[in-house]
């Protein structure tokens, strides 16, 4: 850069002789969770072409850059991996569906669907976002699940529940803090304990829940024991 002198001979801001400039082109848009704003925002996906500049005028191509994600609100640029994080609304839906699936799996493993277990499950499901859920609705869903997969907790039945749990929990687990993953497992454990001690089938389902939430076996054992203590 060269100094620029004003009419009075004093040096003012420097003039940039050589530099680079990027021309951005939109190639897509959508909604994402902006880490800068801390909430859901619209975004544009951009690719760029870089050029050398001479005195601010583009003269020679320097290749491409990007793609990047530009927040429509704060205008900050982020790597495209930011799109892997679910939006707030999507995360809420994932958590709600996970709680619902876990509650049904625990009730189905318990086998009896006692009133106390149904009440505990319905309370958890309502708190997660299914505000109209009732004990009767959950009971009917468990009956349909058992009728579809087999009434005895045998291998095909266990495999079916495990698949359902992993489909609901695997996408959610990376976005939950450790405390959140443990809270979800404890919630499931309290549903199982609502009508008495854990059955072997309930322990197996809870172990699957813990594994899908990437909680190690030692911590799963600790949490299942903690759930039995008076709160």
UniProtKB/TrEMBL annotation:
CDD domains: terB_like. It comes from the Bacteria. InterPro entries: DjlA_N, TerB-like. Gene3D superfamilies: TerB-like. Residues 97-222 form the Co-chaperone DjlA N-terminal domain. Pfam families: TerB. This is TerB family tellurite resistance protein. It comes from Streptomyces hyaluromycini. The lineage of its organism: Bacteria, Bacillati, Actinomycetota, Actinomycetes, Kitasatosporales.
């Amino acid at each position: 850069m060269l100094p620029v002198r004003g009419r009075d001979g004093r040096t003012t801001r420097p003039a940039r002789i050589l530099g680079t400039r990027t021309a951005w082109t939109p190639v897509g848009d959508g909604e994402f969770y902006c880490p800068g704003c801390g909430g859901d925002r619209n975004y544009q996906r951009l690719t760029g072409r870089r050029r050398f500049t001479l005195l601010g005028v583009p003269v020679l191509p320097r290749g491409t850059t990007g793609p990047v994600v530009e927040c429509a609100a704060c205008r900050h640029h982020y790597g495209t991996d930011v799109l892997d994080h679910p939006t707030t609304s999507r995360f809420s839906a994932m958590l709600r569906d996970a709680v619902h699936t876990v509650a049904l799996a625990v009730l189905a493993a318990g086998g009896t669907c006692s009133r106390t277990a149904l009440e505990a499950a319905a309370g958890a499901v309502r708190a997660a976002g299914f505000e109209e859920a009732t004990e009767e609705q959950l009971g009917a869903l468990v009956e349909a699940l058992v009728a579809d997969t087999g009434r005895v907790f045998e291998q095909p039945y266990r495999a079916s529940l495990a698949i359902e749990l992993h489909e609901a929990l695997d996408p959610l687990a990376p976005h939950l803090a450790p405390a959140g993953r443990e809270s979800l497992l404890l919630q499931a454990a309290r549903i199982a304990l609502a009508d008495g001690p854990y059955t072997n089938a309930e322990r197996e389902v809870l172990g699957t829940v813990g594994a899908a939430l990437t909680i190690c076996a030692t911590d799963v054992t600790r949490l299942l024991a903690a759930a039995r203590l008076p709160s």
